[in-house]
Amino acid sequence: MLITPFTPVPATGDAFVGRQGLVRNLRGRIARGEPLAVIGGPKLGKTSLVRTALHGLPDRTVIEVDLGADPSSRLDVDPGSIVVLENLDRVADSAIAPLLARVSMARPASLVVTGGHRLRTALGRSGTLAGVSFRVFPLSVLLDGETRRLIGRDPSPPLATWTGNHPYLTKLLLHYVEAEGYHRTLDDAVAAGRCQWESFVQRLAADVGEGPERRLLSYLIERGRPVNPALAQSDTGIRDIKAVADTLAYLGVISRWIRNEEATLFAGCRLLNDSVMAV
């Protein structure tokens, strides 16, 4: 039977699950006019988070531009509006400064930008880009409880094992488990959705690169359980373990939580791990 492909859409309102504390933090800072940069890997929920944070603010014009769809997009910014520049890192390096300068000159009430690894690198440790100081908000995969709420029924630990609590991969497999009114096994759903998840995890693996991030990810995959960062640093010899783990976390390929009062790193996404180790 032909199954309709999964079509991801930004989640807002009742469809938005988890990250409520982050939503409140973003909303308050947007209301105060702070420039914000939301950093996260592909399909980790940047658009959903920003749109949910904007909901409930006093009436203001919101100008939202996806620069990934049109990097050369012309902006007409009204003074006092809230400007959201999605996928800012899809713009050529030489064009970012003039773009941000043009937006700043229009005196918006607030400026929010989103992007991935390239934007995080451009912001550096200071969070400043083209003279604008951004408050940086890196995303990560969902917490265990948030994934259970997203599933909306039996927590299904095997599903979380396949997806590593990544929101897009979780929704994708749920679609193929329950599409067309049937309830398929998880193995059947993984096979049916391969045409979509395989290209996505290959992109994630490519974003990891071949440097210390790949070394740490491979180490965590081989360990197969949550690992204390200090132990990971000792075993891998990676000097700046925090920066490397930060990159993997906001790409969405590992989780970094406090478990049993201990900081841990965990590569829990079997879809990605199998792809990485097969290379």
Question: What can you tell me about this protein's structure?
Answer:
This protein is of the alpha/beta class and 279 residues long. It folds into 2 domains: 13-138, Rossmann fold (3-Layer(aba) Sandwich), CATH 3.40.50.300; 141-279, Arc Repressor Mutant, subunit A. The chain has helices spanning 20-31, 46-54, 93-105, 117-123, 144-151, 157-163, 167-178, 186-192, 194-208, 212-223, 229-236, 241-251, 270-278, and strands at residues 36-39, 62-66, 82-86, 110-115, 128-129, 132-133, 135-138, 255-259, 262-266. The chain has a 5-stranded parallel beta sheet. A two-stranded antiparallel sheet has the order 5-6. Strands 8-9 form a two-stranded antiparallel sheet. The longest helix has 15 residues, at 194-208. The protein is globular and about 50 Å long. The model has no long low-confidence stretch (mean pLDDT 89).
Summarize the structure.
This protein folds into 2 domains: 13-138, 3-Layer(aba) Sandwich (Rossmann fold), CATH 3.40.50; 141-279, Arc Repressor Mutant, subunit A (Orthogonal Bundle). It has 13 helices and 9 strands.
Segments where pLDDT lies below 50 for 5+ residues?
none
- Which fold name corresponds to the CATH topology of the largest domain? Arc Repressor Mutant, subunit A
Strand count, sense and barrel status of the largest sheet are:
5 strands, parallel
Given helix and strand content, the structural type is alpha/beta
Q: Helix and strand succession? A: HEHEEHEHEEEHHHHHHHHEEH
Approximately how much beta-strand content do the residues carry?
A: 5-15%
CATH class of the largest domain: Mainly Alpha
CATH architecture of the largest domain: Orthogonal Bundle
Distance from N terminus to C terminus (CA atoms, Å) equals: 32 Å
Any idea what the shape is?
Answer: globular
**Radius of gyration, whole Å:** 19 Å
Whole-number count of domains: 2
